[in-house]
Automatic annotation (TrEMBL), chain A:
Source organism of the structure: Blastococcus haudaquaticus
Keyword entries, A-Z: Amino-acid transport, ATP-binding, Nucleotide-binding, Transport
This protein's record includes keyword Coiled coil: no
Protein name as catalogued: Amino acid/amide ABC transporter ATP-binding protein 2, HAAT family
UniProt domain ABC transporter: residue ranges: 4-238
GO molecular function, one term: ATP hydrolysis activity
Cited CDD domains: ABC_TM1139_LivF_branched
GO biological process: L-amino acid transport
Domain of life of the source: Bacteria
Family per record: Belongs to the ABC transporter superfamily.
UniProt key word Protein biosynthesis: no
From TrEMBL, chain B:
Keyword Zinc-finger (UniProt): no
Alphabetical keyword list: Cell membrane, Membrane, Transmembrane, Transmembrane helix
Region entry Disordered, spans: 1-26
MF annotations from Gene Ontology: branched-chain amino acid transmembrane transporter activity
Chain ranges passing through the membrane: 39-59, 71-95, 115-137, 144-162, 193-213, 243-262, 274-304, 324-345
Protein name in the entry: Amino acid/amide ABC transporter membrane protein 2, HAAT family
Membrane topology value: Multi-pass membrane protein
Subcellular location: Cell membrane
Main location per the UniProt record: membrane
GO CC terms of this entry: plasma membrane
UniProtKB/TrEMBL annotation, chain C:
Compartment annotation: Cell membrane
Top-level taxonomic group: Bacteria
Keywords, comma-separated and alphabetical: Amino-acid transport, Cell membrane, Membrane, Transmembrane, Transmembrane helix, Transport
TM region positions: 12-29, 60-78, 90-113, 141-160, 188-209, 264-280
Taxonomic placement: Bacteria, Bacillati, Actinomycetota, Actinomycetes, Geodermatophilales
Name used for this protein in its record: Amino acid/amide ABC transporter membrane protein 1, HAAT family
One GO cellular component term noted in the UniProt record for this chain: plasma membrane
Amino acid sequence: MTLLQLTGVRAAYDGVQALHGMDLAVTGGEMVALLGANGAGKTTTLRAISGTVSVEGAVVFDERDVTGWAAHRVARLGVGHVPEGRGTFVDLTVEENLTLGTLARGSRLRGQVKEDLAAVHELFPILRDFSRRQAGALSGGQQQMLAIARAILGRPRLLLVDEPSLGLAPMVTTEILRSLRVLQAEWQLAVLLAEQNARRALAVVDRAYVLESGRVVASGSAAELRENTAVQDAYLGAEQTGRPA
Amino acid sequence: MSGARTPAVVRPPAERDSEITVSTSHALPPAPRVGLRTAWWTAALAVVLLLAALAPASVISDFQFFQLNRVVTFAIAIGGLNLLLGWAGTISAGHGALFGIGAYTTAILVADHGVPWPLAVLASLVVGLVVGALLGLPALRLGGMNLGLITLAIALLLPPLLTRLDWLTGGPFGKTTPRVEAPPGLPFSSPQWLFLVNLVVLAVVFWLLSNMLRGRMGRALDAAASSRVMAAAHAIPTNRITVAVFAVSAAVAALGGALFHLTTRTSTPDSFTFLLSISLIAGAVVGGSRSFVGAIIGAAFVVFVPESLGGFVDPAAAGQWQQVVYAAALLLVIYFFPRGLAGLVRQARNRLVRRSSTNARSQEEQS
Amino acid sequence: MTELWQQVLSGLGSGFIYASLALAICLVFQGTGAVNFAQGVMATASAYLAWSLVSNGMNFWLALVLVLAASFVLGALIERVFIRPVEGSSPLVMLTVTVALLIGLQAVVALIWGDDPQQLQSPFGGGSVEVFGARLTAQQLGAAAVVLVTLLLAGAFFRFTTLGLRMRAAAQNPASARLLSIDVGRMLALGWGLAATVGAVAGVIFAPTLGVSPAMMDSSLLLALAAATLGGFESRGGAVVGGLVLGVAANLASRYIPGIGSDLQLVVPFAVIFLVLLLRPQGLFGRVSSVRA
Ligand SMILES: Nc1ncnc2c1ncn2[C@@H]1O[C@H](COP(=O)(O)OP(=O)(O)O)[C@@H](O)[C@H]1O
Ligand SMILES: [Mg+2]
């Protein structure tokens, strides 16, 4: 069943077009990657879905046309977004950050907050150990974990994750992606993962779209894309070219 | 909040997370640079007014000249305030007080020390510069809205101070000076003569200011106002510039005040209350704080709007209605014409010019 | 010695006015990034409202409750109508709007209720109490107690309730808050409403001392702004402490420094701020957050 459908989505920043008609679909419970170089439009696509950038075209989530909706209303429908830059509430404690996550679920699954918190703490023990600490004092990787934990505690049906690997050591990235996969399976969560690092993303996702200049230029299952020589040449080399931290 | 060093303690939340919000920023938009065009406009306006000054008393009465003099002297002060609001991106809630300091300096020098008025006016300018530098210096460390706070204190403290220091200021009755007469042989009444003087000063001051803003100073200010970080990256000493600009702005306001005193002849503590500071801000915003034509429009607003209210409202409540009108005008302009009335005028003119040029083109094509 | 103690206590008394207004100013600033120059006159309007009710025979405390509710609505409404159109603008634009609100609202208050000062009866009666050798009126003591309770309640609200947490989140990182389904616009309106309420408590409860007039809050506003600067606009607790400190300092200065009467009392806070800001630009209590990239 299609959970998310983008049709001809266009978005612009101050008149400069960033998305030129995106078509994309995510089915409930699957994990999909958005691949593409820096500036390809991955972040903007995620923003178009969560309503943090204004768009033309159609964004349909769970059979509801949410185009033009305010971000908090989209979130209430069950769209979690781990934004670029992690969006940490730096002056709040780790615990308060997580509480905000649980509040985001509204009245759904209210009774399950305790168990879910326990599950998240098991996945990221560091968040329990540092629960009284100011979130701004965490390291980059820890803040990334916090951001993901906060978003999934809202029990979204679709989780948008923007470049969790950015600025992190490869080991940490692998750990985070693996945790994401675990959660996704356990909580029947669909995940849309924006990643520049195609090789690593394709190792965990089911399917992927490849973006270039605000358009989808290739798509397919992870296995297909790994085999696709054009994609390989263009994106799987990304690891060697070095990327800004 | 990484910058322990950023002097702008007062930082809006919108700035903190600009990486996520796609800002539909509503900042005072950068208007085109002050160009020759502005200078021309000012000059043209000056010539028109000059002709008016020569008009016989039957056309423009002495009282009307008196009002015009208030407009011109306010315009000078608002022009000074524009440096802060329009270019330096900071605010002074105390320009009314600086205006008052200029007025009192001239009043005291002329009344008690027999100084000729032109020298007294110059002295006001210097006093304004010094006071401005002294007030601006803390901005070196504070920056941003704290300057607003300090100037607010000055605005509120000046009237009681003026009352208190009666050995210097004449206390609650203030200082009165003799009428300024035109040099013998010239056929001008006193208000007429002052009008000419004020106009010349206005033209010179605005010309100097726009020259200043067109040069390195203007670029530096723009960079500083748009981003402290960027300015720092270009090694622009934003704080030192802010102090300099504040001093110049204060000097110009004091100059306006000095001329204002020559027009009204009596300065009392309650001529320079907080409401005057607010009026000047209202004039600057309504006229358009990045335009010297705007300063004149704004000054006319400040002088004539309360005046024209007189006929409609209970005279006892006139002051309150004046405040209501200022408030409404400020809000309207901020919401709908962020470039002020001057911006509106410019827009209308551009549209006219464009239309006439397209007309010309289509005619050419037809022939 | 007793004289000094007396001056300290009565300074502390007026310090509570500045503290609550400063807290209100902080709430608004943290939410919308606006330094609300109209905070004082909003409290003035509340005081007039209370005066109208009480002089029409209503019980003081009932009037207080009604006025607090009305002030909350008024504050939220002001945010929705006047601040919303310029949300996220530069501080300068915000400041201009709140200055416009200040002069507009003050004029409206004067047009409705007139210029003449009115007297509101103290709900605490005319008695006085001895506190460690100093004599305080029941009004002084009672007003301070009410404001103190208000400040504590406000603190507890932000610290312990989920709504308080959501408001803090919306203030700190609105973009991120939206992604967690927080209606930031509503939180900002709530913040203004709450600020207006806190200010109204001070305005109404101190009205018997200050007298009810359009300008009753003018110098308090200034001292509150000074207190917020002193405490750091980011720190609610700091603003409250700043208000109390300034209350005492201003009172002591006007008593003991020759030449500073009540008309020039305002010099004191600004001298204090001047010094503090030169030494600690983030304010006495403002934190330099530890943020890592
Ligand atoms: N806030 C912004 N303002 C202006 N242009 C932007 C902004 N964010 C992104 N862009 C532009 O939009 C395009 C897509 O950017 P983005 O979606 O961030 O790409 P990606 O996440 O794939 O790196 C780029 O050309 C980028 O320069
Ligand atoms: Mg991106």
